[in-house]
Amino acid sequence: MLKSCQYCGRIHKQGEECKLKPKPKRKYYKKKLTEENKEIEKFRWSKQWQRKREYIKKRDNYMCVACLLGLRDTAKRLNTVGLSVHHIIPLAVDFDKRLDNDNLITLCSLHHRMADNGEIEADILTKAIT
Q1: I need a labelling partner for 110 at 20 to 30 A (CA). Which of 13, 32, 88, 119 fits?
Q2: Residue 120 and residue 114 in contact, taking contact as beta carbons nearer than 8 Å
């Protein structure tokens, strides 16, 4: 028996799978969060963090500080695209510094990833904001 395919509009034998049929998505399983990770996750969604994040971006003139200083792999000096606020000393290391202005810096996505991976040292970032 033949059947019309809803994915490609052609006719296939019944039971035959169309190559255009989307693959089922993998189920997302949340990792079990430790108490520390729960506290960090809760903080990331807090109004307190949202206000501080906006303050830091404004302090840094809505530009990536690493690009402005010409640190590694800078494509354009005045980068205002893909900005986020980075904790120089990670929350998991010292949660008490989560809102310290001296521990926060505005970075583009490239430099944020590099800072997270340790390719840009924390002391360089600290000197950049002082």
Answers
A1: 32
A2: yes
